[in-house]
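Technical note accompanying the year-one report. For the benefit of new consortium partners, we illustrate the data format agreed upon in the data management plan: each record pairs a sequence with a structure-token string. No post-processing was applied to the example shown here.
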Amino acid sequence: MTRLRFAAALAATLTFTYGQAFAQMAPNPIVKEAKVDSPKRILFIGNSLMYYSGGLQTHLHRMAGAGSPPVDLKDGYKSVHITGANLTNYPIEFLVKPGNVGVKEPFELVVFASNSLDANSDQGKTTYLQKSKEWIQVIRAEGAEPVLYWLPATVKPHPLAGSDLGAKTEEMMLKAANENNVLVLPVALAFREAYRQRPDIKLQVYDGNHPTVAGQYLAAAVAYATFYKQSPVGNPYDYFGALDADTKTFVQKIADDTVKTFFGR
């Protein structure tokens, strides 16, 4: 029993220290705000990590509509998802052309994520950096502004939990963002801080990768604070009761603090 208690205490200490280390590694993004005020036409592109547990698009849409003041989005949000995909799998030229996915006017923002394991290999990292640069050029040519989605690191029981994948992804994302002068959503940093403050919170499901409702809500709250420059704290939207009040308040505060710290607001 004594050994078990010691092991548990050691694990908790390592988890806290790991979180502190990342909290102190303050990345410095060049672009600190979206170039569009209160965007109403946003295209979301990403695999199941973006559409799991209600979907980033759904939560952000409803959060914006419940905000103060509310944002009238009507049918301006669209999302395209391919399970397990990375940037090589999407016909980006087709997707961003006005009218092809149900929005006649050009999108204002295009938020895209790749695969959470891209940074785990040199080839994956190189491909992401090359393809994201190509995507950014295509998106801007159609009159929209690209936004990089920084995916959270994996946690247990995922086989890469506790590896250096999180640090590699951080380096890759900030490199892509700063070299291309583009905004990056610091969702990964919000997850890290939430885990640091509450190691027992469930932000990812059984595979240690896909988000729970709380995790997807946290991601949406980061996007809401970033795009609309409104604090998500106090927003009444709770996925129709699916998110308990304590967890909602906690992740709203984490999102608000993360965005303010990361962008220096």
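Partners are asked to follow this layout when depositing records. Confidence is low (pLDDT under 50) at residues 1-24.
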